[in-house]
Amino acid sequence: MWAANDLSLVPHVLRIQFVSADGVNRSMAPSAQVGKTWSNAQTYSMAVICLLLGVAAGYLLHAPAEANAGSVAPSVSPNAVPGNPAAAMPSAADMKRMADKQVAPLLEQLQKNPKDADLLAKIGHSYMAGQQFESARQYFEESVSVKPKPEVLNELAFVYVKLGDLDKGISRLQQALTIDPKNTNVLFNLGYYEWKGKADPEAALAAWQSLLKVDPNHPKRAEIQQMMAQAQKHLSIAPGTKTEKPAE
Predict the structure, then answer these.
(1) DSSP state of 238
(2) Contact 170/176 with Cβ under 8 angstroms?
(3) What's the rounded Cα separation, in Å, for the pair 46 and 37?
(4) Do 87 and 80 contact (CB within 8 A), yes or no?
(5) Which residues of the chain have pLDDT under 50?
(6) Which one is the CATH code of 4-233: 3.40.50.410, 1.10.540.10, 1.25.40.10, 1.10.10.10?
(7) Where are the domains of the chain?
(8) Given this model, what pLDDT does residue 34 score?
(9) Residues 32-52: pLDDT tens digits?
(10) What is the four-CA torsion angle of 156, 161, 167, 171, rounded to 10 degrees?
(11) Per the count of CB atoms within 10 A, which of 70, 74, 103, 186 is most buried?
């Protein structure tokens, strides 16, 4: 059984893109205008900082999240070198500055049409990639208030989990299923949050069974069946029981 504070899923179904001012999807890249007097270490550090926002989404979406969603990355070291990549991690303030810069042109567009649900969602994507989860929550909420879409609600659920509100995250997934009850991405994440977050094997099994009924050949079928088998062993344990001991 998994306790709520053991929750480690970052939904594999999220797709975060970065949109430039001209509306073209782009990845962050280090500036080509770095002064010639910079040392190799300085150049490397700057490249890492610029690229981190671009890869943050990939890391968040394909690797386990930290158990403590409120943890802060270490500050950037001015003496960072390639042999010590950990020292080149940007601080929370650095991530915020990069996210703010990324969304600046989108916010200008939003002034012309403040009820553009897709644009609001794009801003939410950028803030989520920059790990600015409260800002991401705000824009995702505005987006779904204009036009609720399952994929945006799915991402909003992830943001709520990162903010420590698992119940709200599950609620948003359930809302998404009222729109599209066969959405396998939402069903996968609902089952995961119910299982590893709420420690409710029955609710988790219901979500995953629905998923496999919709898509028997789901690419994550083996993983889902493995989790279902483990959840089945815990059906006799009251939901919410915190234990890391495997079921007999």
Answers:
(1) P
(2) no
(3) 14
(4) yes
(5) 1-6, 8-12, 15-38, 41, 43-44, 46-82, 246-248
(6) 1.25.40.10
(7) 4-233
(8) 35
(9) 333 344 455 454 454 444 444
(10) 20
(11) 186
Report long-range pairs for 64-72 (Cβ below 8 Å, ≥24 apart): 64/8, 64/9, 64/10, 65/7, 65/8, 65/9, 65/10, 65/162, 67/5, 67/6, 67/7, 67/8, 69/133, 69/161, 69/162, 69/163, 69/164, 70/164
pLDDT score, position 14: 52
- Given a contact cutoff of 8 angstroms between Cβ atoms, the answer to whether 218 and 224 are in contact is yes
Whose structure tokens read 């989860």? 133
The two three-digit tokens of residue 95, written as one number: 């991530």
Dihedral class, residue 33 (left if φ above 0, else alpha if ψ from -120 to 50, else beta) = alpha
Q: What is the pLDDT of residue 44?
A: 45
